[in-house]
Amino acid sequence: MKAALFATAVFMAPCITLADPLPSWGTSQSKDRIVAFVDAVTDPDNPDYVTPSDRIAVFDNDGTLWAEQPVYFQLTFAMDRLAELAAANPSILTSPTLEAAAKGELQTIAEGGHEALIEVLNASHSGISVEEFQASVTKWLDTARHPDTGLPYDQMTYQPMVELLRYLRDEGFRTYIVSGGGLHFMRVFAEDAYGVPPEQVLGTYTGTTYETADGTPTIIKAPGIAFVDDKEGKPINIERTLGRRPILAGGNSDGDFAMLEWTTAGHGPRLGILIHHTDAEREWAYDRESPIGKLVDGLNKGPDMGWVIVDMAQDWNRIYTGSE
Amino acid sequence: MKAALFATAVFMAPCITLADPLPSWGTSQSKDRIVAFVDAVTDPDNPDYVTPSDRIAVFDNDGTLWAEQPVYFQLTFAMDRLAELAAANPSILTSPTLEAAAKGELQTIAEGGHEALIEVLNASHSGISVEEFQASVTKWLDTARHPDTGLPYDQMTYQPMVELLRYLRDEGFRTYIVSGGGLHFMRVFAEDAYGVPPEQVLGTYTGTTYETADGTPTIIKAPGIAFVDDKEGKPINIERTLGRRPILAGGNSDGDFAMLEWTTAGHGPRLGILIHHTDAEREWAYDRESPIGKLVDGLNKGPDMGWVIVDMAQDWNRIYTGSE
Ligand SMILES: [Ca+2]
Ligand SMILES: [Ca+2]
Fold first, then answer.
1. Chain B partners within 8 Å of A235 (Cβ)
2. Domain B24-69+151-315: homologous superfamily in CATH
3. Tens digit of pLDDT per residue, chain A (324 long)?
4. Would the ipTM clear 0.90, i.e. be above it?
């Protein structure tokens, strides 16, 4: 019996590696380095072998796993939600900022800076249960369309990154999202879009309260931001939530610098990946001067730190999951 | 080939269920109800079947998975560490509270209340990297012994609960610790003692900072408590970290009431378990009047809410993992 089982294993093993796990990545140094890294850490005979429990890969979301132009998609959701709430009850627009937001006047919000942003977030993201909030995100994803591509927002995920996440999981990694985006917002689509379950999504969060007033315990989103999952907040959040240092980190902006720095400074094999938005034809081209996804430190220091700088225009055969 | 494999499966399947997965639990209603619950949620033909991804079980630690008398073990660690630090550098004992703590004068700390506790925690738990802190916990566990039992503290885990955790995992559950104890403290022993990996340990935490001053990125424990994982904090922390409501929760004090309430109020099959400390012979007997592990609401309301109240003296054949 054992001999028969062994024979099966020997026959089947070669088949498993035949298909390219990253078909949307063109032949490139980026792809070669990623595959070489994964091969090394998963080969028990390689000195760089890493046990599965430590195969943790973390990825930023906006600009890394899905697009982020012309504005973070979550801000579009916030404004759309404000407009919808105001249609039913115009009195909620208690300030010129909120009135502008409900009309989709991005320029006004941008000029209002952090204070305006918090005002819009509070009015659109708090005072309701997590369940109600997430139902409103689901509905928005079903109906809203991106102004330039006409795609549902959750189909503007990057097909090469979706493949990378799947490939890593197939090789025994656990894949996490660690993003400046809202925790409760991202959890709505992360499992369907990326195969990342809710407990592997880390993000910025509002406070919550536990209420039993009506006899049913409910968790309610409170106003204000309790934790910003950006810059140093990323390694801090990972350490607090996982208690492990990842061996692979991917991002696209200087908000990811500390996460990649901490990841790749660990002992043993490590990989940092930066997505460089170079494709003005198929997506957007932006880096050092962009108000969204600004990338300066990563371009200046990343190559010397051994990070893979992915050139979207050169390295990717395909961009969005939702368009062939 | 397939027929041979199938024959093996049929031959071997019956063997798997023969051994009692909970040998340290005596015959009791508590054990019967726990096993019946697990059987139901893992049987695809049962209307109460729950898919593995939603089989989340959460457990308090102090008084639920290990003992907590005469004081929380982490407080003993804090005082022992202060004494050790002061032996090398007496000037760190900058107040009568800290002097008393380094001498192990529990009464003084107790009388100083929350403020004294924070002072002791700050002096013993902050200003060092997470790695250094955890190394000091490892060393303490190797050397310190409980004053009454003479056991290492991490052998004063409850054998019946260690078996329950393993049983649940064998049945496709993921087991989490959600405790008022310190996150960084518990992660040192949770994997060896309970089989719970660091990313499945939730607890109270100090703030941390990300420092790169010496060129090496390090996460440093800051003074003060950033989040108290007790009472309403428990469901809040679970929702924030997991994004799922557990189907099973275990605790021993009113600090666990909200966690059990939220867990068992969910749709579908749910189980709440309270460990009632009734065994003055083999452990300690305490509940309504105890300053540590006070249990009033759980005893008053738990039975009507369908929670299993475990009678330690009656239901457990054996108490500590470290003593037969
Ligand atoms: Ca980004
Ligand atoms: Ca407890």
1. 210, 217, 219
2. HAD superfamily/HAD-like (3.40.50.1000)
3. 344 444 444 444 444 556 899 999 999 999 999 999 999 999 999 999 999 999 999 999 999 999 999 999 999 999 999 999 999 999 999 999 999 999 999 899 989 988 999 999 999 999 999 999 999 999 999 999 999 999 999 999 999 999 999 999 999 999 999 999 999 999 999 999 999 999 999 999 999 999 998 889 999 999 999 999 999 999 999 999 999 999 999 999 999 999 999 999 999 999 999 999 999 999 999 999 999 999 999 999 999 999 999 999 999 999 999 987
4. yes
Structure token pair of residue B209: 């900072």
Q: Would you call A216 an interface residue with chain B, using a CB distance cutoff of 8 Å?
A: yes
Interface of A with B in 219-238 (CB under 8 A): 219, 232, 235-236
φ, ψ (nearest 5 deg) of residue A257: -60, -50
Determine how many CB atoms are found less than 10 A away from the CB of residue A120.
23
The reply to whether B190 touches chain A by the CB within 8 Å rule is no
Residues of B in contact with A130 (CB under 8 A): 239
Q: Is B243's CB within 8 Å of A4's CB?
A: no
* Contact across the interface for A130 and B4, Cβ inside 8 Å: no
Element (H, E) at B103: none
If you measure from the C-alpha of residue B256 to the centroid of ligand 2, how many angstroms do you get, rounded to a whole number? Answer: 7
**What superfamily in CATH does domain A19-69+151-315 come from?**
HAD superfamily/HAD-like (3.40.50.1000)
Which one-letter DSSP state was computed for residue B28? S
Q: Do B265 and A217 touch (CB under 8 A)?
A: yes
Q: Which helix (H) or strand (E) holds B311?
A: strand B308-311
Contacts of A5 in chain B (CB under 8 A): 5
Residue keyed to tokens 């939603």: B54
- The backbone torsions φ and ψ at residue B268, rounded to the nearest 5 degrees and listed phi first, read 80, -170
Q: pTM for the full model?
A: 0.94
